[in-house]
Amino acid sequence: MQNEIHPYYQDTDVVPFIHDQGIAVQAWYPLGGRGRNDELLSDPVLASIAQTHDASISQVILRWDLQRSVIVIPGSSNPAHIEEDTELYQFALTEEEMAAIAALNRNEKHDWY
Ligand SMILES: NC(=O)c1ccc[n+]([C@@H]2O[C@H](COP(=O)([O-])OP(=O)(O)OC[C@H]3O[C@@H](n4cnc5c(N)ncnc54)[C@H](OP(=O)(O)O)[C@@H]3O)[C@@H](O)[C@H]2O)c1
To answer: The pTM is what?
Structure first.
């Protein structure tokens, strides 16, 4: 199942419900969506977590998805970003960091379908 999922739209009810049915969940717009993610990719909470792990904000967002068992296929036309977006296993977010990202949820959908 694919649905819009990023820190500003976390789908907190739907993700565990779908997982409970034994169905995999994939994030649509994992980085907030092309042309719509300036604020997300400069969020100060995410920037602080990224700095702690010597990672980028994109990597923190994608790692947060993986730690809640959400599949990510970020879009990029930049080879450096594509490489960066695959390097998600050299750090792990703590429970406190996962909670800090959970608190960023705004139910702010970036697209309607
Ligand atoms: N089912 C559907 O109808 C549907 C529709 C739309 C999207 N989707 C899904 O959504 C995903 C991709 O959508 P999307 O590309 O619009 O959104 P996205 O993955 O949320 O965001 C892509 C944007 O993030 C930037 N980005 C990627 N990696 C970055 C990095 N490391 N640092 C900074 N910026 C970075 C990209 O810019 P650069 O190119 O400069 O890296 C691009 O502007 C796919 O899984 C796709 O299947 C599905």
So the answer is: 0.95
